[in-house]
Amino acid sequence: MSASLECEAGGPVCRVAGTLDFQTVPALWRQIEQRMAEGELTLDLAGVDSANSAGLVLLLEAIEVAQRRRVPLDLRGIPEVIYEIAAMYNARALLPGTGAD
């Protein structure tokens, strides 16, 4: 299983695809953190086909770091499974959007 981050040249939009799990998230986080250091970031997660709690932690960490650095962060296309995992941990309110609940 793998995950990828494809970013528009000169733009803030990066597309995340693949699996967000304990194996893929550390490398993906390093890439996201690097892009965040450049400024505004939009993560489009519509290409994520599966995720576990590591995917939730990735998004929560991105939100926290963006807030701390005062970097605008937009999360789009968050997979429903991430909302479901967040609900299990009583962390749903920490994510943007509504999910399909």
State the major sheet: 4 strands, mixed
According to DSSP, the number of beta strands is 4
Output the structural class: alpha/beta
The tally of structural domains comes to: 1
**Uncertain regions spanning at least 5 consecutive residues:** none
How large is the radius of gyration? Answer: 13 Å
Oligomer: single chain
For the record, the CATH class is Alpha Beta
CATH architecture: 2-Layer Sandwich
Order of helices and strands: EEHEHEH
- Helix proportion: 25-40%
State the end-to-end CA separation.
Answer: 28 Å
Overall pLDDT confidence: 94
Strand content: 25-35%
For the biggest β-sheet, the strand order reads 1-2-3-4
CATH superfamily: STAS domain
Shape, please?
globular
CATH topology: Transcription Regulator spoIIAA
Give a structural overview:
By secondary structure, this protein is α/β, with parallel strands linked by helices. It has a single domain, classed as STAS domain (Transcription Regulator spoIIAA, 2-Layer Sandwich), CATH 3.30.750. It contains 3 helices and 4 strands. The chain has helices spanning 25-36, 53-69, 80-88, and strands at residues 3-7, 13-20, 41-51, 73-76. A 4-stranded mixed β-sheet has the order 1-2-3-4, covered by helices on one side. Helix 1 packs parallel to helix 2. The N and C termini lie far apart (28 Å).
